[in-house]
Specification:
Blueprint lengths: L1 H24 L4 H6 L3 E2 L4 E3 L19 E4 L4 E4 L5 H14 L4 E5 L11 H7 L4 E4 L1 H22 L14 E2 L5 E4 L2 E7 L10 E5 L4 E9 L11 H14 L3 E6 L5 H21 L5 H10 L10 H19 L2
Parallel strand pairs: 4-5, 5-6, 6-7, 11-12
Antiparallel strand pairs: 1-2, 2-3, 3-4, 8-9, 9-10, 10-11
Helix pairs in contact: 3-4, 6-7, 7-8, 7-9, 8-9
Length: 323
């Protein structure tokens, strides 16, 4: 017994040495390593819950909920964040749990705070596969990837500088199942628009866990410039009907279907409020009236500054619905 134990301890020491050398050679988001933890939300799934707010110098672009799935033989990552440095921090958290290789990465949508950490996953395993919808991959190839690199650099005052673009190559289709060791990840493509177009939600089948990406946010309002309010509400209804045990939103704490219902209710109330009021008042006049219908959400992060923007966008969507 003594020799195998010494061999195992030696392996751990070599792993620690390699991580230290790697971290010294390449930037890593050390604050994310030191001040956040990978929370176990089911038997096989861990989530690093990001802070509220937009990317800035202080958070170095870390605002989303990167997750990882540990099977019997390999690890899959979902939405590895905004930069190489954040991706390396996620890997450091993974190595606290397991030394199994990261072989697959699943991307929910094209917004850079969710997938620009891909290169760190490729650094850890050159053979790793990256999965996304066909539309997301097309967007990234047609300039969205480069644009998001620049946007993150600007918003974080170059805290994300040096990030290398790794665009997914594996196209997922509706209800496609991908094996991760002894586990199964199932793709649920969003029909139409919710937060954006070309979104995918990923289910860890054995654990009944659903990564929603930004189709759901928990107690936090997010940008809807590319989204649909009724589309978001419809997608929330779809999620509830799936009967998932655990919901991992794109932002905010992991929870159950109650967070899905709340988010869908907010989207519905904004849109229906706009449709009711738009014949009698301008968009900027609607906010107090609609806010009265949203008292349950008054403490959500960024409510004060975001509700007015959502109302304006909902007005535009309602007008387009007329044609």
């Amino acid at each position: 017994m003594k020799q195998p134990v010494l061999h195992w301890l030696g392996g751990i020491a070599l792993l620690a040495l390699s991580l230290n050398t790697w971290a010294a050679d390449k930037p890593i988001h050390q604050g994310m390593v030191d001040n956040y933890k990978a929370e176990k939300v089911s038997d096989h799934v861990y989530v690093i819950h990001g802070p509220a707010g937009l990317p800035d110098k202080e958070n170095q672009g870390f605002i989303n909920n990167p997750g990882f799935i540990v099977s019997d033989s390999e690890v899959a990552v979902v939405d590895p964040g905004s930069s190489d440095a954040i991706g390396r921090a996620i890997l450091a958290h993974i190595r606290k749990v397991t030394d199994k290789p990261v072989t697959k990465v699943f991307i929910t949508h094209a917004h850079g705070d969710h997938w620009l950490g891909n290169n760190a996953m490729k650094e850890s395993n050159a053979g790793a596969k990256f999965y996304a919808s066909a539309g997301m991959i097309e967007e990234a190839k047609n300039g969205a990837g480069d644009s998001w690199i620049e946007t993150m650099n600007t918003m974080t005052e170059n805290a994300t500088a040096g990030t290398q673009l790794v665009i997914p190559t594996e196209v997922v289709t509706q209800d496609q199942e991908v094996k991760v060791g002894n586990l199964t990840v199932k793709a649920h493509l969003v029909e139409g628009k919710a937060h954006t177009s070309n979104e995918v939600m990923f289910e860890v089948v054995e654990d009944k866990v659903l990564f929603t990406g930004d189709t759901i946010s928990n107690k936090r309002l997010i940008l809807m410039d590319e989204g649909s309010f009724p589309g978001s509400a419809k997608n929330a209804e779809r999620i509830v009907a799936m009967g998932m045990k655990t919901i991992v939103p794109g932002h905010g704490a992991t929870g159950d279907n109650s967070i899905v219902t709340a988010y869908g209710d907010y989207m519905s109330k904004v849109y229906e409020g706009v449709k009711t009021l738009r014949d009698d008042m301008e968009a900027h006049e609607m906010k107090p009236k609609i806010a009265e219908q949203l008292t349950a959400y008054k403490d959500w992060h960024s409510m004060e500054e975001t509700l007015g923007k959502h109302i304006s966008l909902a007005v535009l969507e309602a007008e387009q619905e007329d044609f």
